[in-house]
Amino acid sequence: MVPPSSTPPPNPQQIQQFLSSVLSQRGPSALPYSEDTKWLIRQQLLSLISNYPSLEPKTATFTHNDGRSVNLLQAEGTIPMPFQGVTYNIPIIIWLMESYPRYAPAVYVNPTRDMIIKRPHPHVSPSGLVSIPYLHNWIYPSSNLVDLVLHLSSAFSRDPPLYSQRRPNPNPNPSPSPNPSINSSMTSTYGQHPPPPGPRVAATAAAAGYPPSPYGRVQHPQHSQARPTSTDDAAEVYKRNAMNKLVEMVHGDIIGMRKAREVEMEGMFSAQAVLRRREEEINKGLKEMQDEKEGLEQQLQVVLMNTDVLDSWIRDNEGKIKNLGKKNNNVAVDEAIHCVDVLSKQVLDSTAADLAIEDVVYSLDKAVQDGVVPFDQYLRNVRFLSREQFFHRATASKVKEAQMQAQVANMAARISHFVS
């Protein structure tokens, strides 16, 4: 038998607190749902209770076919079923299995003691398990509990799954029965097609405090109800067990594959980060090499220009050296080098005067040390020579600046020549 279910909250606010509490539990008492789906489970149950207040969320123990017991969420109560212009209430239990909401829940019809499951029924097995196309075609995350109840109501309205049974009246004295559905319901057998439940059955289902359904799970043989069985039922149970086992195996394989793919993706992301860092280093090194190449090309242009200048100078002065050598083997230094322009001659004269003054000052220092020149005369001569040396140095600096500008203009002209 099913253990007593936990008492559900009586109002929407307490329902929210109840679901938040049971879904947030950790440790051994935690519900066996995936953490990334608990929020969706809570929202779907709240939406279901909002649309169908007759259904109540609970937690109860579900026993699998292999004997495993697990604590799961369920929605227990009645759903409306329109039939021939009248709305009836069908008691059901919706079990949210461990794989929910990625896989469909398990739905059981939960008849009261005054009801019997219709046999045969296209959507309800003798054990109460409901099978409709919406459950077989369950698609995560678009499928939900509200649409499931709508499809259940539509399927049951075409062929009601329950009908009431007549019970003998223990009271021999005829008296008005407090439950009109029991006295007025028709007697039926499993081999007959009984009439659908009437309004009296709906009243009974809504008013009766029906106990936990024995159809909410597959019982062990020692706990099974004394109900007629058949070979078809055993085959169906075996088929359902095999399908459940296959689904669990496939689900486990999918989880394992997903974890393996996640590990591979993490490794790929790490490798991608390393490759990006190496790409940045390579791009940086390539830019440095390009800058160095540009600098070397500029230096090469300067060397080529200087080489051209030296070649031109050698060609211009080679004949002069030969002529001087023919006249006299002793070449005069002053005649061997001539300034090419006025600026060069001015720089040469200023530099020569600067160096000559340096020699004179050095000689005066020696003379003062030897006592040949008086100290006051030494100071006057050094002051005069220093003033003259300053003017020569200033002149040489200005002339060199003018020569540098002329050289830059000449280099620019030569660069255009080499580039073309």
TrEMBL record:
Q: Which domain of life does the protein's organism represent?
A: Eukaryota
Give the residues annotated as coiled coil. 279-306
Which residues lie within the region annotated Disordered? 161-233
One Pfam family matching this protein:
Vps23_core
Write down the InterPro entries for this protein, in alphabetical order.
ESCRT-I_UEV_domain, ESCRT_assembly_dom, SB_dom, UBQ-conjugating_enzyme/RWD, UEV_N
From its record, what is one biological process in GO terms? protein transport
Q: Per its record, what are the GO molecular function terms?
A: ubiquitin binding
Q: Which PROSITE patterns match?
A: SB, UEV
Per UniProt, residues of the SB domain are: 341-409
Q: Output compositional bias ranges, type Pro residues.
A: 169-179
Q: List, as start-end ranges, the regions of compositional bias called Polar residues.
A: 221-232
Protein location: Endosome
Question: Which Gene Ontology cellular component terms are annotated?
Answer: ESCRT I complex
Q: Which ranges are annotated Low complexity under compositional bias? A: 200-210
Per UniProt, residues of the UEV domain are: 22-166
Keywords tagged on the record: Coiled coil, Endosome, Protein transport, Transport
Q: What is its main location?
A: other
The record's similarity note reads: Belongs to the ubiquitin-conjugating enzyme family. UEV subfamily.
For this entry, the protein name equals UEV domain-containing protein
Q: Which organism is it from?
A: Gossypium barbadense (Sea Island cotton)
